[in-house]
TrEMBL record:
<feature type="transmembrane region" description="Helical">
    <location>
        <begin position="236"/>
        <end position="260"/>
    </location>
</feature>
<dbReference type="GO" id="GO:0005886">
    <property type="term" value="C:plasma membrane"/>
</dbReference>
<dbReference type="InterPro" id="IPR037294">
    <property type="entry name" value="ABC_BtuC-like"/>
</dbReference>
<feature type="transmembrane region" description="Helical">
    <location>
        <begin position="87"/>
        <end position="107"/>
    </location>
</feature>
<feature type="transmembrane region" description="Helical">
    <location>
        <begin position="55"/>
        <end position="75"/>
    </location>
</feature>
<comment type="similarity">
    <text>Belongs to the binding-protein-dependent transport system permease family. FecCD subfamily.</text>
</comment>
<keyword id="KW-1003">Cell membrane</keyword>
<dbReference type="GO" id="GO:0033214">
    <property type="term" value="P:siderophore-iron import into cell"/>
</dbReference>
<keyword id="KW-0813">Transport</keyword>
<feature type="transmembrane region" description="Helical">
    <location>
        <begin position="142"/>
        <end position="165"/>
    </location>
</feature>
<dbReference type="Pfam" id="PF01032">
    <property type="entry name" value="FecCD"/>
</dbReference>
<feature type="transmembrane region" description="Helical">
    <location>
        <begin position="302"/>
        <end position="320"/>
    </location>
</feature>
<feature type="transmembrane region" description="Helical">
    <location>
        <begin position="113"/>
        <end position="130"/>
    </location>
</feature>
<keyword id="KW-1133">Transmembrane helix</keyword>
<dbReference type="GO" id="GO:0022857">
    <property type="term" value="F:transmembrane transporter activity"/>
</dbReference>
<feature type="transmembrane region" description="Helical">
    <location>
        <begin position="272"/>
        <end position="296"/>
    </location>
</feature>
<dbReference type="InterPro" id="IPR000522">
    <property type="entry name" value="ABC_transptr_permease_BtuC"/>
</dbReference>
Length: 327
């Protein structure tokens, strides 16, 4: 199958899952009812369900799934490790610590304020990792990975210390930390959209440089590539995309790992194809996880982050065991 055809297939999959997300849930709606709710709403129960509940969370799932999918693909490329994920930079841990501090200070009282605190924390952690890893021989893939893991462990320990010592903060934090698109409206998507767009544009710009970096730093430098600039642009893109995702929906694990790896298996290592494929794969995966959580949760629902962990992780381990993982 050619890459354009495969990419078109992913687009159709995203459209199909988007429609299913609007139609299915605790109350199943037909295609006609969904279309009427979107085009000619009359104030019926079906209109309210589609327009006020399902449509906003589905849009958020598409946006955040695309962000985390591309971040995962970039992370795997820059670390040259197919099992890498954006969390290894400490971005999610930085966002979580900032939100916890905001909760403890009493200044985080809504999704709007959570978005900005998480974004600030994530970006500070991203640049901090890049700064630390750049000392000495520069921000090499191994240096970035090790520095990011150390920073993530430190920030995670600080977050745990704060929430364990403050019951009120822990009670508020645990609902955000599970990772979900439930209750997220279009206002959340609008707030993180500028960061997501900039991150995606930087990812596209970084695609050619990432292809050269795959040849090795010496070869890439010999071809005229600025290694430091390429890594900085890639790191900034990863930081912005992951920050947008974590800020809007909490730290959703595994999604970047899954989307980046699946896209690489289907489309190969050329990043001009890999990046849009990872975005579409991530969007479809997060929508599916949210939909499955609504269908199996009965009167309530299982959060998308939980579904991705329970379903996706075992499947990914199976893939890794059956096939060698290499870039």
């Amino acid at each position: 199958m050619s890459r354009p055809v495969a990419l078109l297939g992913l687009v159709l999959l995203v459209v199909l899952v988007f429609g299913a997300s609007l139609a299915l849930g605790s109350r199943w709606l037909g295609a006609g009812a969904v279309l009427r709710a979107l085009v000619e709403p009359a104030g019926t129960d079906a209109d309210v369900i589609v327009r006020s509940l399902r449509f906003p969370r589905t849009v958020v799932a598409v946006l955040i799934g695309a962000c985390l999918g591309v971040a995962g693909a970039l992370m795997q490329g820059h670390t040259r490790n197919a099992l890498a994920e954006p969390g290894i930079f400490g971005v999610s841990a930085g966002a979580a610590l900032a939100v916890v501090l905001g909760l403890q200070l009493g200044v985080v009282e809504s999704v709007r304020s959570t978005v900005w605190f998480a974004l600030v924390g994530a970006l500070i952690a991203t640049f901090g990792v890049q700064r630390l890893a750049s000392r000495g021989s520069g921000a090499t893939p191994v240096g970035l990975a090790l520095t990011g893991a150390a920073v993530a462990a430190l920030l995670g320990a600080l977050t745990s210390a704060i929430v364990l010592l403050d019951a009120d903060t822990l009670d508020s934090y645990r609902f955000w930390a599970v990772g979900s698109v439930a209750g997220r409206g279009l206002d959340v998507a609008v707030q993180v959209l500028p960061f997501a767009v900039v991150g995606l544009v930087l990812a596209v710009i970084n695609a050619r440089d990432l292809d050269l970096l795959a040849l090795g730093d010496d070869v890439a430098a010999g071809l005229g590539l600025s290694i430091r600039r390429a890594r900085f642009v890639g790191l900034l893109a990863i930081g912005l995309l992951t920050a947008a995702g974590v800020a809007a929906c909490g730290p959703i694990g595994f999604l970047g790992l899954l989307a980046g790896h699946v896209a690489r298996r289907v489309f190969g290592a050329r990043n001009i194809w890999l990046i849009p494929a990872a975005a579409l794969t991530g969007a479809a995966a997060l929508m599916l996880a949210d939909l499955v959580g609504r269908l199996v949760g009965g009167a309530g629902e299982v959060q998308a982050g939980v579904v991705l962990g329970l379903v996706g992780a075992p499947l990914f381990v199976l893939v890794v065991r059956r096939r060698a993982v290499a870039l």
